[in-house]
User: What shape does this take?
Amino acid sequence: MGMHLQDWFFQAPWALWLTGVVLACTAELIRSSDPEVAGNRAGWAAAGGCGAGAITASILPALWWAAIAVAAGATYVLWQAIRPRPA
Assistant: This one.
């Protein structure tokens, strides 16, 4: 009897966060080809937040809420740090 993918993600929550990193980076790369939103770096901030969530989930796998809080906080800090400023 094999293990289902849902069971594996439950045992390795960091893998879900790394999936979020890949998806956010892919979305940002696709969006950056559009000149209207090329300066918006929300995807990079989301990828960084997901990366922080992955690190937290690998250290504290039982505290799922801690990974969400760290990811949200890191995304906010990264967005404030890399957002485009008006000239």
